[in-house]
Design goal:
globular; two-stranded antiparallel ribbon; Rossmann fold; alpha/beta; three-stranded parallel β-sheet
């Protein structure tokens, strides 16, 4: 992904965060999907919401004095009030009790990864689906 300043010049992640901060932004929201790519590594067209990408962006944000909010989607792609599918790496039947353990493990591993590189976000669990969490 490329970013440009108001003059049209390319800027890196740090430049973007500086631009945001200088224009009154104090928080960045980063969404993290479980595995937002197909078997060939191509993302689904909604950006690149992988944990590794969020880590890099969060570090740039914090280095530039911005607060970070990380939203875990618990899906492979963006969720909505009516669509929330189980990640393809979670081949379990809807409603199965193993889902809670998988969600807990994924959350703990993700938070440990963030903490290990010094990213201390305000985070939230994204469950926008009214009919069920993580496709359940």
């Amino acid at each position: 992904m490329k970013f440009h300043n108001f003059d049209g010049h390319d800027i890196d992640d740090n430049g973007l965060m500086q631009l945001l901060k200088s224009n009154g932004v104090n928080y960045v929201l980063l969404k993290v999907a479980v595995n937002p790519a197909d078997e060939n590594g191509n993302t689904y067209g909604g950006g690149n919401p992988m944990l590794a990408n969020a880590l890099k962006t969060a570090q740039a944000a914090q280095a530039n004095g911005l607060n970070v909010n990380i939203q875990f989607l618990y899906s492979d792609f963006h969720t909505s009030k009516i669509v929330q599918k189980l990640p393809k790496s979670c081949p379990i039947t809807k409603g199965e009790t193993k889902l809670a353990a998988k969600v807990a493990d994924y959350t703990a591993q993700s938070l440990a990864t963030l903490k290990a590189v010094g990213v201390l976000p305000v985070w939230c669990i994204a469950c926008l689906a009214c009919a069920g969490f993580a496709g359940s």
